[in-house]
Design a protein that fits this description.
This protein is an alpha+beta fold. The chain is built from six helices and nine strands.
């Protein structure tokens, strides 16, 4: 039979292990409850940032056509029109290596089985040509697009005069804009936290969203959280770059 002293020692040891187990188990239980409670106390907000920028690249497309019944004469006339256009552009200050001529297209109306009735031999052929100008001098392009009346007065039939102004330096401002949008989101989250008597904690989840580059005029009519022409550039020199981020923050009591 074990002595009373030995029994008391064994009981003490057993009690120690039981207490330790309860303490450790209680820690994990309480920690799990805390984390679960923390995870349920979150707020999701959107952050917004925008910058006014100017286009730094212009792609200018000029098309013309000639119509007649004598194909060799039309080729000759088309060549003269192209020379006139090249001379006009170089006089404006554009370098020859920035001007490209497209492939000449010939449309024989009488060879088209779906042609309209009444097409005469005198208007059988339509020749179309396109010149494109690629320039970083967007101001010169913008000014020159409004001075094509001289070409019309010389008998050139212009069928297209279109410029695509582009902003190509988005990478230079991306990081700064994301910081601004994130700060904007955190400010909104803090307002929610103040109302709830909490503090904004760390970020649980983040969604950057897309950058959009739009005409400054069209941007005024759009939803700041992503307009109908989201991500598209419009043909104006003055533009607005926008980004919207969606962030979920923990709220700490």
């Amino acid at each position: 039979m074990p002595s009373d002293k030995s029994s008391r020692i064994a009981a003490a040891i057993l009690g120690f292990f039981i207490a330790t187990g309860l303490a450790v188990g209680g820690y994990f239980i309480s920690n799990t409850i805390y984390r679960g409670k923390l995870a349920s106390n979150t707020v999701t907000v959107k952050g917004f940032a925008e910058r006014d920028v100017k286009a730094d690249l212009a792609l200018w497309t000029i098309s013309y056509s000639v119509t007649g019944g004598n194909l060799p004469e039309l080729y000759s006339q088309s060549g003269k029109n192209e020379e006139t256009l090249l001379s006009f552009l170089t006089q404006k200050g554009f370098k020859k290596d920035s001007i490209n001529s497209g492939d000449l297209q010939v449309n024989d109306l009488l060879a088209n089985q779906f042609r309209q009735n009444g097409v005469s031999e005198a208007n059988r052929y339509i020749l179309r040509n396109t010149l494109t100008v690629r320039s970083t001098d967007v101001g010169l392009v913008d000014q020159s697009t409004h001075t094509l009346n001289d070409l019309v007065r010389q008998g050139i039939v212009l069928t297209q005069n279109r410029v695509d102004f582009q902003f190509t330096k988005l990478n230079d401002i991306k990081a700064a804009m994301l910081r601004d949008a994130t700060q904007n989101a955190r400010t909104a989250a803090q307002q929610f936290a103040n109302d709830a008597g909490s503090n904004v904690g760390s970020i649980e989840n983040a969604n950057q969203g897309l950058f959009s580059i739009v005409s400054r005029d069209s941007a005024a009519a759009q939803d700041p959280n992503g307009g109908p022409v989201f991500g598209q550039q419009q043909s104006t020199v003055d533009k607005i770059v926008r980004v919207v981020v969606t962030l979920t923050y923990y709220l700490d009591k």
